[in-house]
Write a structure and sequence with these properties.
Length: about 230
């Protein structure tokens, strides 16, 4: 198969993300994302070549996540399924964080992401947009943190718990959009269904994430492991 043809699943995935966002307009970050994508040459011929890789321990639950994407997003779900082995999936082991940040083992051991568009290690280069897919295993606690860039989660599965400013928790369903303004502390807890989201950063794409300490992390992780969260 030629490189051009092998690139088609990834190009189609970005096309379906763009289409899904185009009918979910409203938040400024959605408009910013669509504007950046519209200015790019998103063709198979212009794609950078990345070595495909998916950690084997994530495959089963990733398929569970895809199967839980709601029917109104079926085209996007099919595009994700068709491209999953064409993508370079990576683990965030703290490289996006300030040095020695306490990201926690729950997050460190249970996350993976791929860069579709970005400054580095993506299929398409952009200095304005960082976009990809973000996956968390069930019962993962993603600690409170903040960062300078504006961020979007386009949640493809759910419900999952989110809190902001280290305050109360709210559950967000599949097909929901969360817009984290710059420096807004936020955290995520994943229940029985794996977490899968389209993520976007706009703004200073070189910025690092900072952990925002809270005194209830051990309790929250225990609630997830014992099934008493939510």
């Amino acid at each position: 198969m030629s490189d051009e043809h092998s690139n088609l699943p990834v190009v189609n995935l970005i096309t379906e993300i763009t289409h899904a966002l185009s009918v979910r307009r409203g938040p400024l970050i959605v408009e910013q994302t669509l504007s950046c994508l519209a200015d790019m040459n998103l063709t198979a011929e212009s794609m950078q070549q990345l070595e495909p890789c998916m950690p084997s321990e994530f495959i089963d639950n990733f398929d569970v996540a895809v199967n839980n994407i709601p029917s109104q997003l079926s085209a996007l779900a099919n595009a994700i399924d068709a491209s999953k082995y064409s993508i370079q999936w990576n683990r965030d082991l703290g490289q996006f964080y300030v040095k020695d940040a306490a990201v926690g083992d729950s997050y460190r051991n249970n996350n993976m992401n791929c860069t579709l568009v970005g400054k580095e290690n993506g299929f398409f280069h952009s200095d304005r947009l960082f976009m990809g897919l973000f996956f968390l295993q069930p019962h993962t606690f993603y600690r409170d943190h903040n960062h300078e860039p504006s961020e979007m989660y386009f949640n493809l599965t759910g419900p999952h718990g989110f809190r902001f400013n280290v305050d109360g928790w709210s559950d967000y369903t599949a097909d929901s959009i969360i817009w984290n303004l710059p420096w807004l502390p936020h955290a995520t807890r994943v229940y029985d269904i794996p977490f899968l989201s389209v993520f976007v950063w706009t703004g200073n794409l070189d910025a690092l994430i900072q952990v925002v300490n809270a005194d209830d992390w051990a309790e929250l992780q225990n609630e997830l492991l014992t099934g008493s969260a939510g």
